[in-house]
Known about the structure:
This is Histidine--tRNA ligase. One of its GO terms (cellular component) is cytoplasm. The chain is of the alpha+beta class. The chain folds into two domains: 2-82 and 142-230, BirA Bifunctional Protein, domain 2; 241-332, Rossmann fold (3-Layer(aba) Sandwich). It is built from twelve helices and twelve strands. The strands form two sheets. A seven-stranded mixed beta sheet has the order 1-2-7-6-5-3-4. A five-stranded mixed beta sheet has the order 9-8-10-11-12, with helices on both faces. The radius of gyration is 28 Å and the shape is elongated.
Amino acid sequence: VVRAMIEHNLPREGIQKVFYQGAMFRHERPQKGRYRQFHQIGAEVFGVDNAKIDAELIAMTHTLWQNLGLKKVTLEINTLGSAEARVNYRTLLVDYFTQHKNQLDEDSTRRLKTNPLRILDSKNEDLRGLIEAAPKLMDHLDEASAKHFESFKTYLDCLNITYKINTRLVRGLDYYNRTVFEWTTTDLGAQGTICAGGRYDGLVEQMGGKPCPAIGFALGVERLILLLQAQGLTIGTPPLSIYMVALGDKAQLKSLQIAEQLRQALPEIILYNDISLGSFKSQFKKADKAEADFAIILGEEELNNNEVAIKPLKNQGEQQQMPLEDAIQYFKKG
Length: 334
């Protein structure tokens, strides 16, 4: 996203709010909730450095969880301060963990050299006490970052969004600064993060663009589906699908009119209007292949009576004949 923003000079045009969705790929070993190929939805804001937009993005995800009916999701927040504050804090962490190097596991020993902040995010329960006793970045913030975090919390309070401050939350990428957050759940075992994000105010400049504050989040679609399943939730009901079956030139003409009337009256339906001029049998085969719920049939009898025939395709219901106006009401009632 940042590359695209720079390539098209969008940060120069003021505040930019963008979203994306699509397939992603990861190099790490796949496991439940962490697939080689997965799908992601994200939103990013460029050009705003105040904490109000941080809270606005979180409010967006909060509304999504409410609309989906999700329960037992927790918002965890932290601040990573400025780049300068993090450099000083990194030195404190290295000194602290070096003194206790004999207690570190293999992964944390490696991180001590590459990215000591990630030790704070270790899932090794044997290190919990050591990590809890480590220096807190919150105690070493620069003044501007401390004010930003206080404003951020105030906005969340104003929106009645409950949160938990997690001083171990550092995120996995080095370019984050100030606000970082995760939505977590206990219903998915080890892969408990369903949405995460934060500020990356220096990334645009690092990648060759003009200085531009930015913040964003991403959520994994497959993991969200797993959580919905774990909580016994479904995402609405699929739209009704109808297949128009017409035999003869007059019926084909009439089917065009009826299809348009149905689309106007029932904009949420999926409507297939067969234009192949094939036989009833071939058209019904296509209706089955399309997995349509109903067929609307137009033959000579229906034309003479100024009616349509409705045939259920997914159950053993009886075929009914009625005026189009009644058919519309029939489908509206579900």
